[in-house]
Amino acid sequence: MSAPLMMVLATLLFAAMGVCVKFASQHYATGEIVFYRGLVGAIAMALLLRSRGIAMSTRLPAMHFWRSASGVTALSLWFYAIGGLPLATAMTLNYMSSVWMALFLIGGAIVLGGARTDGRLVATVLVGFVGVALILRPTIERDQLWHGLMGLLSGLLSAMAYLQVTALGRAGEPEPRVVFYFSLGGMAAGLLISIPFGGFHVHGDWFAATMLLAVGLLATAAQLLMTRAYSIGRPLVNASLQYLGIVYAFIFGAVLFDDPIAPMALGGMALVVGAGLAAVRLRNTVAPRVAAPSTLEP
After folding, report:
1. Using alpha carbons only, how large is the chain's radius of gyration in Å?
2. Is residue 21 part of a domain?
3. Is residue 296 one of the residues assigned to a domain?
């Protein structure tokens, strides 16, 4: 399966996970959802590693630590931002991760004087973000600036995490092992968040417990696909396709939760899809160059 197709599927699964989170959040606190998401992922990846005969130990513990630390911190900050901002604003700030990624890659290319960043791919990222903004129409009040800053920081850390996933893949690290250590990080973060605020609820509602399990399964499958896509694909192509997640979420919201559909939002969806298709077309027309494992060529 190609990297673009894996990103399309991953974003769909992440959007479906968001629906399950919405249902589960009526019965469980944020820290609990983060913990159980990590628990299901760690168990699933441990079984997958065992079935493939791959050891859980790694020769790159520092890289895994920073990937997990940045990814889990980004997730926690995003949940914090959601608590103090309109959902549309929080999601827009988090989706700036693709813009940050483009800036990191351009800056790295300038500093190192090595790999050349394709300006057309950068343009697809920026057009996709404009589409996201049209869909979500974010707003922010003066007393919400702190939460807005945290949302902005979550997007920056997410970009760092995605680039670290790329580096781990090019260093030869198996995708299940990358997701396994990220899941362990999620469990640790969930415990740290939950214990000071009342601990864990008893699983008394079967529907809520099912939604909690679905969050873990969908997130793990999506994380595995995304990790593989970033390991073998071009980061800026993946970043453009990642915007499709907000289109899926918008459709789910309209169908399942009767969210209003505005003409501006439909125009934004067209921009997002168009930017993703353009990125894939550019990927197929520009011959990739062979790079060293540590090189983050977009």
Report:
1. 19
2. yes
3. no
